[in-house]
Amino acid sequence: MIHKEILIIAATAAVFAWSTVMVAMGHVAAVATLAPALGLAVQQIVSAARPQSEPKSARPAETAGDREGRAS
Q1: Distance of CA 54 to the CA centre of its chain
Q2: pLDDT the model gives residue 72
Q3: What would the pLDDT profile of 22-49 be if each residue is shown by its tens digit?
Q4: Burial group, residue 29, by CB count within 10 angstroms (0-12, 13-18, 19+)
Q5: E strand or H helix at 20, and its extent?
Q6: Which element (helix H / strand E) includes 32?
Q7: Which residues does 50 contact at the CB level (< 8 Å), separation at least 6?
Q8: Contact 64/71 with Cβ under 8 angstroms?
């Protein structure tokens, strides 16, 4: 397994373990309040797990001075 995958699995396990412990301890209101943060954490983990594609190189734009037939 790649080092990155191990970190992603560990982060996911930590997030879900934390929320499970909070519910088990009776802090359901705290988990409900922090649900958006948990959702964001999961979104960031999923985003990190996806392969990153490199942006395509854009063609350089022509400048007005490079056109033929310009008025001098």
Answers
A1: 15
A2: 55
A3: 888 888 888 788 888 878 887 887 787 7
A4: exposed
A5: helix 3-24
A6: helix 28-33
A7: none
A8: no
Structural contact between residues 38 and 15, judged by C-beta atoms closer than 8 angstroms: yes
List CB contacts of 48: < 8 A, sequence separation 6 or more: 4, 8
Q: Please state the φ and ψ torsions of residue 38, each to the nearest 5 degrees.
A: -65, -40
pTM, rounded to two decimals: 0.48
Alpha-carbon gap, residue 14 to 52, rounded angstroms? 24
User: What amino acid occupies position 26?
Assistant: G
7: its two tokens: 């970190």
